Amino acid sequence: MRKQMKISMAIVALFLFAISCKNISMTEVDETYPPPVTDTVYNSDHPYNLNVVYFVPSDITTNVDYEKRLSKILIDGQAFFKKWMMHWGYGEKTFGLLKDDDKQLVKIITIRGQAAQGNGWDYNDNLIKAEVDQYFLNHPEDMTSKHILVVTATNETDPDRVQNFVKMPFHGSGATSAWPGYCFALDYPAMDANNLGQPGTVGFEAMKWIGGLLHELGHALNAGHSGEKVSEKNDPLLGTSLMGGGNYTYGTKPTFITHSSAASFIKGQLFSETTGTFYGDPGLITKRIYAKYESGNIVISGRLKANNPINEISFNHIPSNNTGGYTAPGWVTSPVDVDSFNISMPISEIKEKNIENYVLSVVVNHQNGSRSVISFPYKYISNLPVIDFGIRNDVYNRTTWTATFSSEESANSGYKLFDNNAETFWHSRWASPAAPFPHSMIVDMKASKTIHGINFVQRDYGRRLKGIQILTSTNNVDWENIGQFQLLNYNGGQSINFPSAKVAQYFKVIITSNHDSGGTNASLSEISVY
What gap in Å lies between CA 315 and CA 376, rounded to an integer? Predict the structure, then answer.
């Protein structure tokens, strides 16, 4: 069903908003604004559409033909997104945009602001956002989705001054159940899509700022940074990722949307063809995850649980020399049997294997458009990955195991460490008086076993273990110290490998700290031995 909005004038009134969001008053139409466009009909095939705002600071005039110039940029961008969504097998999907196809105009809400550009904003968007939020509070009928693009006008024609002195807000962040997806870009007099590919400064600046606008829009549509695989970078039809360095190639050199970015877009509100509820907390729980290096591939398998179904899972490898993830190559897989996954990623596709430290960012994309992110560190040594996160599968049976604790809550007692359910957990005594550090547990395995290491599954929320000491015993009297370790702060399994195998019936874990900012509580979901 097509959505239609008819207005008799493109600009009928402008509002002057107080930064404090109080005492909103009406002001006259500025003489610098272009003549009103009559009989404009905005249509969209989407029930939800991008809110496009043109914000004019109080000490700035509108730039000539901004409606036409920005409309072309966004209509071209909509086609660009559709091209790459089709490439990755999602069909002719792109973000919703209210536009008049005959006039090639996009619906743009123009706000004459009270905030002044002054002598530089240092990327501070608070003043602008307060006025835009107030506009939509006063005009809820104009709010067509939870995604907002704010293009701020500057009259500066010197690109270096725009970037280094004026410092306009230029960034983006995704939507959640509580917050809209906001992105900020700018408009300067020469920002024209027709300048893309032109030689010299004019073409370079158009590429940077127009490509940058679409890059930040990608963030507002819930994608993070992503780079290219080796084969993608070398493919003349692909080139550079828009969500990587694409703001320095868009419109001039091959630029594309990665599969991992597309996977974040596809279930978002603006890509939906039906109405629904979006971005609610999916309640993700990591039941199991295990990684290994095998025959030139990083292999990861696991099982997840979520209140909102999982659509696809992305795996992005972020090198320590680019923690923003701009150069991170990514893979995408679909869950098997609803909640399990298995993926093999050839390291030949990862360019920077001379970088020692990496973070594997596992992005779980849900059916309601929300994203859950779990991060795991790993290393490269001599150009080969050393994978030491996750939990081992070759564990001993725990049916008869028992444990004693220095303290516990009756509702969260220790037997829950052995129930194969990551949603239940042991918790130290938090009721007054709360038990202080250190906490300790002694596990009786009921028979002597050869121990190579211990698996820990951290709790989903809070009180995760940090500093621990591990000891083993054959008789629960004489203890051998295995060492002190630190567990990582993520809601999944991780293994502590012993320096050498130990024969024991008992093992003890002494907990000396947690990952919270304060308090002395500790909590753990599962523990096992291999």
Answer: 11
